[in-house]
Amino acid sequence: MNNLGIYNDVDFFAVEDDEWARFYDVNVVSGVRLSRHYAQGMVEKGWGRVIFISSESGVAIPADMINYGVTKSANLAVSHGLAKTAGRNGRDG
After folding, report:
1. DSSP tag of 71
2. pLDDT (tens digit, 9 = 90+) per residue, 23-44?
3. How far is CA 21 from the centre of its chain?
4. Which spans of this chain does the record mark as coiled coil (predicted)?
5. What DSSP letter does each residue of 31-69 carry, written as one string?
6. Distance of CA 24 to the CA centre of its chain
7. Which of 7, 24, 38, 68 is catalytic?
C-alpha cells in the first residue's frame, strides 16, 4: 500500500524547481520504487495487490496546492498503468 505524501499551501509562482522535484520524489517516486520492488513477485506468484492512496486533489487540483495535486494525478496514472502492465499477470489491457 502506497500512502505517502507531503503537501503545503503555497502560491504556484512561489514554488521553486527543487520543491517540485522534492514533492514528485516523495509523493510519486517512492510509490514507484515500492511497487517495482514488490509487484514483480506478485506477478510471478499469480496474485497480489498494489494499492495507491491518492487524493481528490489528483482529480480536482486545488489552486493553492498545484504541486501536490499534480503528484496525486501522477499516482493515479502509475496505478492505472501498473494495473494494465501487471494485472491478471499482465493479461489485462
Report:
1. H
2. 999 999 999 999 999 998 998 8
3. 14
4. none
5. HHHHHHHHHHHHHHHT-----B---GGGTS--GGGHHHH
6. 9
7. 68
Taking the C-alpha atoms of residue 28 and residue 77, their distance in angstroms, rounded to an integer, is 10
Handedness of CA 81, 9, 5, 21 (dihedral sign): positive
Instruction: Judge whether 7 counts as a catalytic residue.
Output: no
Phi-psi region of 48 (alpha: psi -120 to 50; beta: other; left: phi over 0): left
- Using left for φ > 0, alpha for ψ between -120 and 50, and beta otherwise, residue 89 falls in left
19, three cell numbers: 520543491
Q: pLDDT digits over 51-65, tens only? A: 999 899 999 999 999
Contact 2, 31 (CB under 8 A): yes
Give the three-state DSSP class for 82. helix
pTM: 0.85
